Amino acid sequence: MITIVNIDIGNVGSIVNMLRRIGVRTLISDIPDDISQAEKLILPGVGAFGAGMEGLKRKGLVEALTEAVMQRQVPILGVCLGMQLLAESSKEASCPGLGWIRGKVVRLRPEDRYLRVPHMGWNTVKPIPGAALFDPTADEPRFYFAHSFYMDCADRVDVVAEATYGFTFPVAVQKRNVFGVQFHPEKSHRFGREVLRRFSEFSIC
């Protein structure tokens, strides 16, 4: 079972529907005990970094998440804003993030001034060889994006996929049991379904 963290700012229904298609049971919860005892976690979110962190704090979920992810090594997947919350900080807010991935969240600034921000729509993604969330046989996997900020990672080893939108930037990270994707797998058809399937089957050896 995958527990989906509910802080009232994510596409929870769409994620549940996609997981159902691949036969994965889910629990939507904002109860700290559910989060701390979860087998796997998805942290979704859309909107502002500050609002996301405030939602986690208001519901008492930061400590529960830390216990599950950092102490019990429960796999977690941050989606869109959820990925950004994994970082240490954001240029969008004064509050710190969860800090599980070293780096900061910064605004998209494509070199081509004709490219609009927010970055919305389909974009090809280039995973590194062996990235756990991606099918190595897929030819130019495409995912749906809707964002104005991205994670600028301090450690390149944490970056497992990139995309290009006027410039190249990280769109997926992994540090042991901590995963993040800037795109929306729940809106990305077969490519997104495969990412969620692989996450649901991931285990730390």
From TrEMBL:
Its EC number is 4.3.2.10, 3.5.1.2. It comes from the Bacteria. Pathway: Amino-acid biosynthesis; L-histidine biosynthesis; L-histidine from 5-phospho-alpha-D-ribose 1-diphosphate: step 5/9. GO terms for molecular function: glutaminase activity; imidazoleglycerol-phosphate synthase activity; lyase activity. The keyword Lipid biosynthesis does not apply. Residues 7-199 form the Glutamine amidotransferase domain. Its main location: cytoplasm. Coiled coil: none annotated. GO terms for biological process: L-histidine biosynthetic process. IGPS catalyzes the conversion of PRFAR and glutamine to IGP, AICAR and glutamate. The HisH subunit catalyzes the hydrolysis of glutamine to glutamate and ammonia as part of the synthesis of IGP and AICAR. The resulting ammonia molecule is channeled to the active site of HisF. NCBIfam families: IMP_synth_hisH. HAMAP family: HisH. This is Imidazole glycerol phosphate synthase subunit HisH. The gene is hisH.
